[in-house]
Amino acid sequence: MKILIVGAGGQGGPCTSILSRMEEVEEIRLADLFLENAQKVANKVNNPKIKTLAIDATNEDQVAEAAQGVDVVMDFALPWMASHVMRGALKVGAHYVNSAFDTPFWDELSAGKPLTLDKEFADANLTALLGCGMAPGFVNVIARLYCDKLEQVDSIKIRLGKKNTSLEEYDEYKSPWNPGWSPVQALKDCNDSAIVYEEGKYRYAPPYTGMEKWVFPTPVGELLLNHHSHEEPYSLPRTIGKGLTYCDFKYYLHPQPASLVALGLASNEEVEFRGIKVKPIDFVAALLPKPGNTFLAENPANYAKADQHQHVYMEIEVKGRKGGKEVTYLAHLPNMNVPGKPISDLFGTSYVNVALPAVMGAMEILEGAKRGVIFAEELDPERFLQRLQATGYPYRWEVEEK
């Protein structure tokens, strides 16, 4: 099996490491706009299967040339670049997987229109799997798992909360905001209106609306949440069926990006200041800490502290009916990167929360899956989870049935 990875950043690095340890993978082509980035990842993973090259992810001909003879193209470039990389994969007859998506698919999903390149991939007997990371991705698979247990699905609610218990009170107000990945994309997500599927129709909710308190498992506890721009409420209503009438995604309220949005500093619209035109979001991004590459900076000495203090919870509430009774499933999904050392021993990195689901999705579409453009919840959830657990990955979640 040969695989092209596009993007050697914080997700492309872990994906390379995971794939390098799989016997069925014979060649990994790791491509980035800057060859140096790809080479640094290759040097760290240190496996002869890896070949590095430089390509522009927005140039489908360069992608196609790099993908000649591969089975799957795995795309970890920015979400808006997806259709370019997809076209490159299609040209050489390769399947395609990414971990996040936006334009043009968001507009097509919300308008009920055909999806870009869906027919072309299906006609070529290929699959383009969109949004198969952690969220979207793993959470979609879990949502589908419990939706499949119901005869009717009324609502799907997805909630994300975080807490760093090593911080002193008010530290999050005093330290520079660092989302841990692209600050421009993260701030854009905070500033964008969020999609909500309500009463069987899509609508857009302004940023920082839909406020509610949600109680996560200890030690995260109660957090204030709000509607947040994310992929899941776009695709799930289209794919789940079963009478679904409500779906949303809410994120914990962080005071720093909320303040930037309120002040207009997350805007992409140019403003003039003393004769100079500037986009506020570009100015703010220039001042924020650079995201760096978490994979290259990973330090095993920090695993124990991260395990103890870095708490992330995804919660999925699925409501519906089974056997004539109302049923609620509430799945509690803790940090997918914990425990750090056992995970790193398996995969060469603890940062597997996005890359590992993407690899599992790639393996499933190679084994046989729906053709055309699909989403993570259209994979077989039982098979996906069996494959994941067969790797030895020590992750477990809990679910309450009410």
Structural features, described:
This protein has 402 residues and is α/β, with parallel strands linked by helices. It has two domains: 2-134 and 343-401, NAD(P)-binding Rossmann-like Domain (Rossmann fold, 3-Layer(aba) Sandwich); 138-336, Dihydrodipicolinate Reductase, domain 2 (2-Layer Sandwich). The protein has 17 helices and 18 strands.
Named CATH architecture of the largest domain: 2-Layer Sandwich
Rg from alpha-carbon coordinates: 21 Å
CATH fold-level topology of the largest domain = Dihydrodipicolinate Reductase, domain 2
Q: How many domains?
A: 2
| Number of β-strand runs | 18
Which secondary structure elements does this structure contain, and how are they paired or packed?
Elements: E1 2-6, H1 12-20, E2 27-32, H2 35-45, E3 50-54, H3 60-66, E4 72-75, H4 82-91, E5 95-98, H5 105-111, H6 118-123, E6 127-130, H7 138-147, E7 152-164, H8 171-174, H9 183-191, E8 194-198, E9 201-205, E10 212-215, E11 222-227, H10 232-240, E12 246-252, H11 255-262, E13 271-273, E14 276-278, H12 280-287, H13 294-297, H14 303-309, E15 310-322, E16 325-333, H15 340-347, H16 355-367, E17 372-375, H17 381-390, E18 398-401
Parallel strand pairs: 1-2, 1-4, 2-3, 4-5, 5-6, 6-17, 7-12
Antiparallel strand pairs: 7-15, 8-9, 8-12, 10-11, 11-12, 13-14, 15-16, 16-18
Helix pairs in contact: 1-2, 1-16, 3-4, 16-17
